[in-house]
Amino acid sequence: MNKKIIKRIYNVVIILCFIGAIGWCFSHFYHGSDVVYTDDAQVNRHITPINTHVSGFIKEICFSDYQHVKKGDTLVIIEDSEFRLHVAQAEAGLRGSKAGSSVVSASMGTTTTNVQTASAGIEEARVDMMNAKQDFDRFAALMKKDAVTRQQYDNAYARYLGAKARYEQASSRKASAASVRNVQTQQLGGSRTGSHRPHPR
Question: Model-level pTM?
Answer without folding.
Answer: 0.38
